[in-house]
From TrEMBL, chain A:
It comes from Falsiroseomonas oleicola. Keywords: Membrane, Transmembrane, Transmembrane helix. It comes from the Bacteria. This is Tripartite tricarboxylate transporter permease. The chain crosses the membrane at residues 20-39, 46-72, 118-140, 147-167, 203-224, 250-270, 312-336, 357-383, 395-420, 432-449, 469-491. Residues 20-441 form the DUF112 domain.
Automatic annotation (TrEMBL), chain B:
The chain crosses the membrane at residues 12-33, 45-66, 87-120. Pfam families: TctB. Keywords: Membrane, Transmembrane, Transmembrane helix. Residues 13-152 form the DUF1468 domain. This is Tripartite tricarboxylate transporter TctB family protein. It comes from Falsiroseomonas oleicola. It comes from the Bacteria.
Amino acid sequence: MGAIEGLTLGFGHALTLSNLGWALLGCFLGTAIGVLPGIGPALTIALLLPITFSVSATGAFILFCGIFYGAMYGGSTTSILLNTPGESGSIITALEGAKMAKNGRAGPALATSAIGSFIAGTVGTIGIAFLGPIVVELALKLGPAEYFMLMVLCFVTVSAVLGGSALRGLTSLGFGLLLGLVGVDLQTGQPRLTFGVPELLDGVNVVLVAVALFAVGETLYLAWRYIEGPVEVREVGRIMMSKSDWKRSFWPWIRGAGVGFPFGVMPTGGSEMPTMLSYYMERKMVKPEFAREFGTTGAIEGVAGPEAANNAAAAGVLVPMLTLGLPTSATAAIMLSAFQSYGIQPGPMLFTSQADLVWTLIASLFIANVMLVVLNLPLVGLWARILKIPQPQLYAGILVFATIGTYGISNSVIDLVLLYGIGIIAMFMRRFDFPVAPVIIGMILGPMAEQAMRQALTISQGDWTVFVTRPISLVILLIAVTALIGPRLYAAWLRRLA
Amino acid sequence: MPHGTARRGPDLAAALFVLAVGLLAAWQTAIIPPSPIYAQVGPKFVPALIAAVLLVLGAGLTIVALRRGWSQDIEELQDAAPLNLRALGLLLAGLLANLVLIEPLGFTIAASAQFVLVAAAFGSRAILRNLVIAFIVSLSAYGLFVKGLGVNIGAGVVESLIFGAPF
């Protein structure tokens, strides 16, 4: 099905009252949790996973995607008004945005990021609609060997290419892969890594791990370094952008969207790189008369570009998720496990076997974007008020929800012990700069990778060369190896030159 | 460099912890019973591979830690506040309280106790006010999950009184 045909079908389903309701609820929740420091979309979607037992798949995914997009909008509000970025993608926004707020220009900064997010989100969603079917076309030609290699590539890029260190990134991934292995091996029926605890035969629950990493670990780390004191929230003021603001924002929005989307599509799984790239680009391309605003009073270009890049990258992440079943961010990984709980296997078949679901979802993304820009511009004062929830009650509340979300899985205290145990490990991971996203991605993608590898080897009758003799598989393997050692070789080469 | 060595200790501990996880994985892999049915790739292969990778990574981290460590390169830590034992202790006490109370007394009471201790950890001393907020937050969380999301959470004393007996 082509994009136009698909979108026609999708909008037909998405414009029903119940689906619009799910989108609105998702956008509202997403913006709220995006604004609140300490919780993000991955945690929220994990806590809401039980909804998959009582709501149709379409409704649930519209809700989840609304949360996903909404969190990107909300994140910028926190960066600008509080100067503490909640998500990695809005770190760059805080650079110029907080400075603008300090100089009484919080309103225009919030407006340019909301409108930029809208433009980039729309461009990104158009990208999903047109690129998706093409990727599916290609993906249908891939066998288990190629799939396994794609997953290996995904593992390498999310853990070793970005972030401080390949050693620590891969260690996080390994920890996630171990957690994914716990339980009965589906192919041979043997218990693995259960330490003889019967509760572990079913495996470790993804929700539990997500909550441990994103809620318990974060809160523990905050307490570790906690200094008491009131938090300063900047006033919003007038949100109107002047004519000059519009002119200065327009091209950064477009350029940011252009940079962000491809980065999201590629399995690099981060919004740090595109937002940073957009920031430096705008800094270079800014008109000379505004150049001195960068780093001093805050330049609107430095908010518009990175915010657009952040949202376009977020949209891009949905392409490999929907077409290949490859999650490249923690949130996408949680959504993947939601698909699994419906018994739907994301991957190329999704576009044919679940065409209604996919196209309704994509159409809902367009609708969500419109809702979000409306929710975020006139209502920005409301979100700013959410920021005034005092920290003690906020974190105490987050832990209440963390506990109930985990205890609800099977009413077992053992789950809570695991939750707090993994939370303490997550606290130390935070302290020693081990990234947490690879844990979730490894845990969810690991068992799928093992299955693909076993299928490939069963087809080849145990011949391991299948991974290097099939040309596409070999190419993906080479890309993965390059991604792993390329940056290190390059750095070593630079050092030799210096 | 005495300053450098002082900072290396924690990194070394983290590296050794990774090694320990690798060893734990290797031990658990070794005791996986052999597969009763034929499989091209048995149940042990992937766990063994990951255990080996973790051991190699742990060894790598140990070498880095012994050389100069990596913590001194983490920007965030340069001007980070010192360990706040009181906050961390109160927070852990909150988690423990929840763990102990949730089975005998039910979610709402356990979560309220946790809420008050966590809020205290972050510097809020208005215990009575927090208790009221805690009670409202926990009870609405319970209502949302049980009635809204259809999650089964056993009813304790308070829940039975308000929402009726569970069965």
